[in-house]
Every structure is written in C-alpha cells, then in structure tokens.
Write a structure and sequence with these properties.
Blueprint: H1 4-17, H2 19-28, E1 34-42, E2 48-56, H3 59-62, E3 68-69, E4 73-76, E5 79-82, E6 91-93, E7 99-110, E8 124-127, E9 141-143, E10 148-150, H4 154-160, E11 166-168, E12 178-181, E13 187-194, E14 199-202, E15 205-208, H5 222-230
Antiparallel strand pairs: 1-2, 1-7, 3-13, 4-5, 6-7, 7-13, 8-9, 8-12, 10-11, 14-15
Helix pairs in contact: 1-2
C-alpha cells in the first residue's frame, strides 16, 4: 500500500467486481488513474492534521471530494465563508438551526470534460440566481458532480414521495436556469464532513455534508477499504459516519 503499483492493482481488482467500472476499464484498456486528495481533519486532542493522499480515481474516492467548487459560500456562525477558507474546528450552520463543528475537509482538482472511471465526463452544475425561488440561490452557485441538494424535483415526486430528498444536482438540469458547465481550466473541488451527517446552506441552497452511504464499502476490497478509511481520521469504520440525516433520491440521469 505504499507504492503506486499496489494502488493500481487494488483499483483494477475493484473495477473488475463492479459492472460500471468494468465497462469503463475495458473501454479505456489501461490502469485506473491515480489522483491526489488533500485532507484537513480535526483530531481528538484539538489539533489539526493536514495530509495528502494518493489513491485511485474511483467513485468511492471522487464522491468524497467533489461537491463544492472554490468560492462556494458556506453559512457559518460568523457569516458566509468561502469553502476554501474553512478550517476544521469552524462552526457550520445546519438545517436544524444548530451549528456543528467542521471535523473534516477534503479537496482535489478535477479537469472538467475529462472522463471519470465510470466513463462519464466530469462536469459542474450551475444554478443561476433565483433558479429555485427567491434568493435560492442568492447568486450563481456552481457545484461539483457529487453534490446533493435537499429538494425533490417534480419528475421524481411521484416515484419517491412528497418529502424532501437528498437529490443529485444533475436531476435539476433544465437547460435554462440550471445547466451543465465545463470550465476550460482545472478546478478545485471540496467536500465537508461534520460530526454527524447534516444539511448545510451553501449560497442560499441546502446541500448535504459528506456521508459515504451505509453500503459504500460492502463490495470493496480490503486494500481499498483501508486506504479510504485512512483519509478519515475521525472514524474507524463506515458505521462511525452515523445515520443519514435524510433519505437519498435515486439518480436516473445517465
């Protein structure tokens, strides 16, 4: 686990066990690429740990680092703060009206337009001002591919029920006010983890904090599982992320 070749072998093994990854891997006919992930985390003694990890660019890892783009304004106890300026220990506003401590922040750099391990392109989703109602968002908000919004779009309400669901941002694309965008240069993307899963306000919209999902590691090989958990010093196992704050909608867009 200390050399790139071992990571590539582990990535290849997991790719072969999952249909979506297998199709993308066979099409590419190459080893899964590696990516650098940067992590800042709050330790139990109050100190802050900052580390860089090299890991396969698989969805398990990508989804933990690609929700918010540089400049996204996060609501804190001292007002909106750009995501890149947040630090573990800061207090983040949550939907229940309380302020939770930021315990983990992850960052990676994506090249929009380049294909991911699943064969799909990396693209951002742009929400124009007032696209979901007055001051929702207050100004243009650009999210990464793994962001989920606490809102159920009309086309999913019949199947999923009437309550709010954590819905992938791609389900809101309408071609006018909410559109896919592919910036011409690499872009830094982030995700945030609190002590428990929650919904936070970003630019006037309500998005979830990071949670891998209770089944995220069920079919994952031991080396990949170990590498993944090493990125989260505040947890020892998948169960330590706790329950989901809200149910998640099933994405139907390809």
């Amino acid at each position: 686990m200390t050399i790139p070749q071992s990571l590539q072998r582990a990535a290849a093994n997991i790719a072969k066990t999952q249909p979506l990854l297998r199709e993308a891997t066979e099409a590419a006919d190459s080893k899964p690429q590696l990516r650098r992930y940067e992590v800042a985390s709050l330790l139990p003694n109050g100190n802050i740990s900052e580390n860089r990890h090299i890991a396969p660019a698989l969805p398990l890892f990508e989804q933990a680092f690609t929700a918010f783009t540089r400049g996204s304004l996060i609501e804190t106890d001292y007002g909106p703060v750009a995501v890149e300026d947040l630090y573990p220990g800061d207090k983040i506003w949550t939907r229940d009206g309380s302020f939770q401590t930021l315990v983990w922040k992850g960052m990676t750099t994506l090249v929009p337009g380049r294909k991911a391990a699943t064969g799909t392109r990396f693209a951002m989703t742009s929400f124009m001002a007032d696209s979901l109602g007055m001051e929702k968002p207050m100004s243009c908000v650009v999210t990464g591919p793994s962001a989920r919004l606490l809102r159920t779009p009309a086309h999913l309400r019949h199947a999923e029920g009437d309550g709010p669901l954590l819905t992938p941002v791609t389900e809101f694309l309408d071609g006018m006010n909410i559109v896919e965008t592919v910036p011409p240069t690499p872009i830094d993307t982030y995700h945030l983890c609190l002590a428990r899963h929650a919904v936070i306000r970003v630019g006037g919209l309500e998005f979830e904090t990071y949670h891998p999902g209770p089944e995220a590691l069920r079919l994952v090989s031991y080396p990949i599982k170990t590498l993944f958990l090493n990125m989260f010093p505040h947890v020892d196992s998948i169960t330590d992320f706790g329950p989901l704050a809200f149910d998640r909608a099933r994405a139907i867009h390809a």
